[in-house]
Amino acid sequence: MEEALSRIERLAEESDELGRQDIMASLHKLAYSLERPENTRDRYGFLQLQTAIIKVDFDLGLFKKLTKSARALSVDEIAQETGAQRELMVRILRHLSAFNAVDEVRKETYIANQVTKNLAQTSTEAGICHWFGTASPQFQNIPVLLQKNGYTNPVDETHTAFHEAWDTSLSPFAWFENQPLLLNYFNQYMATRTRTEQSWLQFYPVLEEVADCPPTRPVYVNIGGGVGHQCAQFKAMYTELPGRVILQDLPHSIAQALPTPGVENMIHDFFEPQPIKGAKIYYLRAVLHDHPSHKVSQIIRHIRDVMAPDSRLLVDEMILPETRVNAVASSVDMSMLAAFASMERTEAQWRGTFHREGLDLVKTYMYNPLTYEGVLDVRLSPGV
Ligand SMILES: C[S@@+](CC[C@H](N)C(=O)[O-])C[C@H]1O[C@@H](n2cnc3c(N)ncnc32)[C@H](O)[C@@H]1O
C-alpha cells in the first residue's frame, strides 16, 4: 500500500495540471467504489457539517495561524491564539483532523498540512464563505422548489430556490445590496476565482481588433463588471491603448468600484437601453449564465441595438462540453438553477441564443480548457 501510494505521489508530481486532476478523480472514484452503504450514507450525510466547522475556523483565523507556525501547536496554544475555549477547540481540532483538514502529530497537538494551507488562502476563504453563506441555504431548498414545480427545469427567475431560502421577493443581486458581508465574500470570490494569467486577455487578439480605435471612441465596455477588477487588468495590460474604458454595474457595485486611473465607473442596469453606443468591445463575464434564456435575450438585445458594424460582443463564460462534464462545472450549473433559474450552456446553446437575436458566434477562444472557460466572439449578423 505505502509503495503504491508513493508511486502515485511521484506520478502526480511529474504530471501537468490535467494529469494531476485525472489522478485526483481516479483516486476519489476508487475510494468511493470501496464504500459500503454506511460509508456512502456517512459521506453524504455529514457533508455540510464539514463546511460549517470550516466556517467557524475561518472566523477564528485558525488556518492562517496554523499555516504561519513553523512547528506543531498544542490545543492550549491554539485556544489562546484564537480566543476560543479550550474544551471547544479540542473537539473542533479532532474533527478537522478526522477529515484531514489539519494533521494531528500527537495527543492534542496539530500542524498545518496542504489542505490547511489551501484553507489559509484568502481566495479559498472567500469562495467557501460565499458557497456556505449565500448558496448553501438555496441548495437546501432545491428539493422543495422542484417538488412544487412538478420536476420541470426552472425558468421563472422570480421564484427560485433562492427565494424559498431567503423568504424574499427581491432578485439575488438586489438582495445582496442589504447583505454587505455576503456581498463582500461574493465580490472577493469573483475577483480571485481564476488566476490572472488564465484570462481572455492572453488569448483574444485585442490589439489586432482595436488597432484603429480613435481616442474618443469607447474601446472596452465591461457590462456587469462587478467592482472593476477586469477593467483594471485591461488597463494594466493595454496602458497605451486609445479609447474609453468603461465599467458598468448596479449602484452597490459601482459604490465599491476600484479607483483605476483611466476607467470610467458608470451605474447601468443592463435590462435598460445601453447608453454607450458604437463601442468597439462590449464584454460580459459570468453575467449571462445568471439568467434564463428569455432574460439573456433582453440583455443582448440592448447591446445589439447599439453595436456598430465593427463592434464585438465578447461573452466570457463556461462553455460546457456535450459529454462528461466535470463535477465543478455541473455544480456551478446546479447553483445557477437554484439561484436564478438559469444555466451553464454548451457552445451549440450559446450559438442558438445569439442567432435568435440577429447575432453570429464567429469564434470561440477557450482560454482554460480544464474549467471550460472561454470567450465567445459575437458579431452582428450580416444584414442586421
Ligand atoms: C456573477 S457577477 C460577475 C462580475 C464580473 N463580471 C466578474 O466576472 O467578476 C454578475 C455581476 O452582474 C451584476 N449585475 C446583476 N444584475 C445587473 C443589472 N441588472 N445590471 C447591471 N449589472 C448587474 C452584479 O452586480 C455582478 O457584479
From TrEMBL:
Residues 52-119 form the O-methyltransferase dimerisation domain. Keywords: Methyltransferase, S-adenosyl-L-methionine, Transferase. Gene3D superfamilies: Vaccinia Virus protein VP39, Winged helix-like DNA-binding domain superfamily/Winged helix DNA-binding domain. GO terms for molecular function: O-methyltransferase activity. It comes from the Eukaryota. One of its GO terms (biological process) is methylation. Residues 196-358 form the O-methyltransferase C-terminal domain. Pfam families: Dimerisation, Methyltransf_2. The active site is at 289 (proton acceptor). PANTHER family: HYPOTHETICAL O-METHYLTRANSFERASE (EUROFUNG)-RELATED, PUTATIVE (AFU_ORTHOLOGUE AFUA_4G14580)-RELATED. This is Uncharacterized protein. It comes from Xylaria grammica.
